[in-house]
Structures are given as structure tokens and as C-alpha cells.
Amino acid sequence: MQPVFNAVIKLTDEFSAAYLNDEYAQLIRYATAALCRKRQSPLSTGKINTWACGITYAIGSVNFLFDKSQEPYISAADLCEQFAVSKSAGAAKAKVVKDTLKMGPLDPNWYLPSRLNDNPLAWKIIVNGMIVDARQLPREIQEIAFQKGLIPFIPEAKIEK
């Protein structure tokens, strides 16, 4: 799968440099690597540019890339056009990516690190059977939640995981 990974990353890195940013590029690399590690990898069949588009589309949809109020922004149609893929093919591959990697809206595992502080799902934890926002808890509990990998960093300290 190494040649497939390299080919996809070449396309997505070029796209990210032109239209996105380094954070997007890194998340796309992580997603591509995760897909390559799957047995049977979905990337073992199909065109490289279609997979590059689908992975970028999936990461973009989790991070509201297609929302005009966000920066960076690109429409789904323009994203697919840049990879020379139809919008329906790009969306179909994105669905495969999301299903395979269990991505959902605001998924903290696939969210831009610079925006994690504003992602409500990254901070919801269960304490004594109640769902609470970890940012509102005492520092001691935040430290325990961070050590257990339940939150991405301790809010005041901004220690990244």
C-alpha cells in the first residue's frame, strides 16, 4: 500500500498547499494512512485521484470546509473539480471514507487541532452518570480526564495531546 499512500498524499498535499492549510494536509495524511492499514484496504481498488478527492472531501465535511463562513472555504463541486472527479464520485468515496473510519460531524479525532477548543464534542465527558463539559470542571478532574485521553488538552494550560 506504500505506493498508493505516496500517490494519494502527493495529490492531497498539492491541493492542501493551494487551497487549504497544513492542518488539513496533516489530517488527510492521517486518514490516508488509516485507510491503507485497513485489511482489505478500500484504497486497493479505484483511481488514485478519486480516493484523494474522497479523503479530502470527508475531512473537509467534518470540519465545515464547504461552509462559506469558514476559512479556508471551497465548495464541494470545486474541490471535486480540482481532482478531476465528478461531485457524485467524490461524495461516494467520501462516504466510504467516513464509514470506514467511523467519522461523524464534529468528530474530535478528525477535527482541526486549532479549532478543537470550539468543538463541543471534544469536551463532553460522563461524570457520575451525567454528561458535562470538561472545561467547566475543576482543574484536578480536567487533569484526570486528560491523562485518560478523554479531552484533547487541559483548557487553561493548552497542553496538546
Structural overview:
50% of the residues lie in helices and 5% in strands. With 161 residues, the chain is mainly alpha-helical. The chain has a domain of 103 residues: Orthogonal Bundle (Cyclin A, domain 1). Strand 1 and strand 2 form a beta hairpin. Helix 1 runs antiparallel to helix 2 and helix 3 crosses helix 5. The protein is elongated and about 50 Å long.
Put simply, the count of helices is 6
Rg from alpha-carbon coordinates: 17 Å
CATH architecture of the domain at 2-104, by name, is Orthogonal Bundle
The fraction of residues in strands falls at under 5%
CATH first level of the domain at 2-104: Mainly Alpha
Topology:
Blueprint: H1 2-19, H2 22-37, H3 48-62, H4 76-82, H5 87-101, E1 124-127, E2 130-133, H6 139-147
Antiparallel strand pairs: 1-2
Helix pairs in contact: 1-2, 1-3, 2-3, 3-4, 3-5, 4-5
Summarize the structure.
With about 160 residues, the protein is mainly alpha-helical. The chain contains six helices and two strands. The chain has a two-stranded antiparallel ribbon with strand order 1-2.
Descriptors:
about 160 residues, mainly alpha, Cyclin A, domain 1, two-stranded antiparallel ribbon, 2 strands
